[in-house]
Specification:
Length: 185
């Protein structure tokens, strides 16, 4: 029998909750009009769920859409090619969009999604990520709003996975002894 992996807490439930509330205030302060939140599945679903409720408390009434993009084809490094696995249903023409993702790493996923929405005529596309890992950036892109600047660890929890596991953790942790293949989406 192999021992279960050790997961060390990097950002606690309380730290995440406090940061999500202040992110919502920062977003509110930029004065978005007729806001459409586009959450990139799967990794951002917990963050997006908390963020839209914090946006409500901050006085905004966003509509919510989801996009699923392939990023990691298995393994720890994201691949260069991005494809749309599930698209938004709404017309994004003329809309103010808030693109929500869990982690900005190479930047390829967010750069692809942002360009796609702008090509479709979005008025403005702002990017919010819970974690920014600037060490591995490949595309020229920055987030407009960042929860935490994160060291180059492979993290799990609060929606983020390793090989489909650990999304359910209420905190963000570092997996010290991962078993099998990791796959972030
Ligand atoms: P990139 O910016 O295109 O490299 O892709 C970032 C995406 O890879 C994130 O949205 C996650 O889905 C995934 N990812 C990157 N780092 C991690 C990690 O440490 N844990 C889990 N997923 C990750
Ligand atoms: Mg992702």
């Amino acid at each position: 029998m192999t021992a279960p992996p050790r997961i060390d807490v990097l950002y606690s439930e309380e730290a995440i909750a406090a940061r999500v509330e202040s992110l919502a205030d920062e977003i509110r302060a930029t004065g978005p009009r007729d806001l459409l939140v586009v959450a990139i599945l799967k990794g951002s679903f917990v963050f997006a769920a908390d963020l839209i409720r914090a946006l409500h408390r901050a006085g905004l009434a966003p509509e919510v859409e989801f996009m699923s993009l392939s990023s990691y084809g298995g393994g720890y490094e994201s691949k260069g090619t991005i494809t749309v696995l599930r698209d938004v249903d709404s017309d994004v023409g003329g809309r103010d969009i808030l693109l929500v993702d869990d982690i900005l790493e190479s930047g390829r996923t967010i750069a692809f999604a942002r360009n796609l929405l702008l090509e479709r005529g979005a008025r403005r596309v702002d990017v919010v990520v819970l974690l920014d890992k600037p060490g591995k950036r490949k595309a020229v892109i920055d987030a407009d709003f960042v929860g935490f600047v994160c060291p180059d660890y492979f993290v799990v929890g609060y929606g983020m996975d390793a090989g489909h596991a650990w999304r359910q953790l209420p905190f963000i942790g570092v997996l010290s002894a991962p078993a099998g293949e990791a796959e972030g989406t």
